[in-house]
Amino acid sequence: MAPGTDVVADAISEIVAEAGRLRGGGRLPAGYEDDLERQFTSVAQDPEALGRAVDAGALSRPQAYRFRRPDGPAQPDDRPGERRGLGQMAAGASRRSLRTARGASRRGATVARRVAGPRLRSLERQTLDQAGRLAEAIATRGQVTADHARRLASSGGSSGRLDRLSPGGRTLPAATPAAGSPRSAAIGSTEPDGPAAMVADWALERLGRGSGGRVLHVECAEGGLVRRMAAVGYEATGADPAADTSESILRGGALERLGVERRSSLGGLVLSGVTEEVSPASARAIAHLASSRLRPGGVVVIVSAHPRRPSDDDPITSDLTRRRPLHPVTWCHLLARYGFGEITVFDPSGGAGGATGALYAVAGRRA
Amino acid sequence: MTSRPVRIDQVIPSIVERDAVSHHTLEAQHVLRSMGFVSEIFADNWGPGLNGRVHPLAELPREPGGGQWVCYQASIGSPAAEVVAAHPGRKIVNYHNITPAEHVEAWMPSLGEEVRLGRRQLAELAPLCELGIGVSRYNAAELDAWGYRRTAVAPLMMDLSALDVTVDPRLRAELEVAKETAGSDWLFVGQMLPHKAHQDVVKAFACFLDLFDPNARLHLVGRPSCSPYALAVRRFAEAIGIAAAVDFAGSVSAAELSAYYLAADVLVCCSEHEGFCAPLLEAMHYGVPVVAYGTAAVPETVLDAGIVLGSKTPVLVATAAERVLSDPVLRAVLIDRGRERAREFTLEAARQGFSDAIEQLLATVS
User: To the nearest whole number, what is the mean pLDDT of chain A?
Assistant: First the structure.
């Protein structure tokens, strides 16, 4: 069709002309369009309105690590590491609980077969499934409890539950955080700054890549990140041992809070604070908990202080010291092992270290 | 002299359900197998629903002697590209477009790095590949610019008929009630990412409210993939006093998406960059007229079946939407042409396009 004869092309020409008339016709205030642009720019650059600073230059290059998932399912209690005192007892209790639960399930199944015969086979299968899940939960909780015990012991705290677990347990030496490093829970403060603000921004962006659904921030401090998540539409909940109780922030043991979540019930999970004082065995339990509580496509973000030391470049020697923050590569391996893909590390310093590199974050998507 | 390969395997960084590139890859496997090739999909990550259909990338065979070719589905930077580059077999890149970093990095520095890596990897793959297939002419032109010695265009293998699902009755009823009360419904569908320029749709909509229809509604459907940006758009709507008229619908099910398309009076797209823009065709499929800013691949996707504008100033976009809503002749023409245009993108036609591109390559190199 020749130019000028097509109804759509003609309409576009007329639309352009009409828009010009409207602009100059006094129906809109002078500078109307410029004012709209100015208002968006103002919002986009207002860190208070957004809860963040839009500063690309300050956010350096993330490093990306990707690992192939290993064959076969990972076990939460495989290759337990060294345990002493309170931790050893708690871990032992978890193994005993696991054996007891498995034994009970086998005995129950045998009785069911003898007494009830084939009509109760389906009930038997259900019993086995439930017993298996119970055993797994007990084992996982045991690993977490072991580290919780160490943390409380090293900080001088105690609880009736721990006394029962370990009467007379000795106090272990306190962890040695990197000098001047902020605790990773700072990302949940009301007004995070420096690397905590950058990591919080990055965590929000990563969660946005998830499959939606409820989001939990474990050890959420003042709940700043929880409120930001809620502001952009997430059903967000936080848990922190010291937090003020409110509708969206729950007081109580943070990992215990995660433990009571239903399987595959979360769309997103942020872990901070608790990630810094774990043994390799307990880190496996955390990765397992995260994997089992997230639904497929869900995103986990692990935030931790960086174990920067003279041996910083060697994750193996850095990480075998118990109860220190883990190296990001270790979290990458753990996430890959427990069914996460698209694993990415964010170092706010871009590898330069210093105060900006005191925190890091690792994110992964549940396959 | 090159003999016909026995197998053409595909490599993709990540493959999941309900994703356009992933669906395309599964369809490509179907086409390659129907052409007589052994064809498997290898990925770094895959969704649980694809267990058994996808193999770990580490298991990609490396058959000597030219019997194996590899087709890389490129849409983001990934170590998978390096696996393809190092593979001894002949290589094909199927390019779905990677948004240039400048459109996203101010809001998402990490994504900026990923797309920058992806575009660099595509340039590095150019001398190693026999063929680059773009899902649009725009994409093929980018491949040409990177130095691919042969390029072809084969559309995205998408099944528009899959949109004809049961409509969400509750949402449909809500939208219908609002429409009967007063006002028209604007729609934009796309993840809330900076290069989709939702803020420009909101600006145009604000202008439309001021100039033409104070009772209109804007529905922004799409996952808030960049939270700070999504929050900024929401705050912007609040700041200019139109938040009550803007529906931030977020990620929706197929049944809900269908309800939004059925209720829409016009689809307005102000994206800064699109490699294809499937929602434009989806809208046409539903008989929703399109007003779009003519950037990147948008003009060739729409052709003359929509109002494609050379700029996206709020007054111009608002005026275009008003014309589409108030001119029954123009509206009827756009709906007819849109449906016709959408019919050109049948799954069968797209499969044939992909098959032809492969056959032509084999004829050339044999």
Answer: 67
Q: What gap in Å lies between CA B250 and CA B171, rounded to an integer?
A: 14
Intrachain domains B7-158+346-365 and B161-344 with the same fold: yes
pTM of the model: 0.60
Supply B338's token pair.
Answer: 């849109």
Separation between Cα atoms, residue A303 and residue A345, nearest integer Å: 10
ipTM for the assembly: 0.87
> Number of CB pairs < 8 Å for A and B?
166
Residue B156's SS3 state is coil
Fold of B161-344: Rossmann fold (3.40.50)
- Would you tell me how many other CB atoms lie within 10 Å of the CB of residue B344? 13
Subunit contact B315:A33, Cβ cutoff 8 A: yes
Within 13 Å, how many C-alpha atoms sit on residue A337's CB side? 17
* DSSP assignment letter at A3: T
Q: CATH top-level class for B7-158+346-365?
A: alpha beta
**Quick check: A341 and B14 CB within 8 A?**
yes
Question: Which residues are B71's β-sheet partners?
Answer: B10, B92
Strand A236-240, strand A249-251: pairing: parallel
Is residue A240 over pLDDT 70? yes
Residue A293 and residue B183: Cα distance in Å, rounded?
44
A40 CB near a chain B CB, below 8 Å? Answer: yes
Of B1 and A203, the one with more pLDDT: A203
- Going from N- to C-terminal start, the domains of chain B cover 7-158+346-365, 161-344
Contact A297, A342 (CB under 8 A): no
Q: How far is CA B319 from CA A36, B195, B202, in A?
A: 16, 23, 14
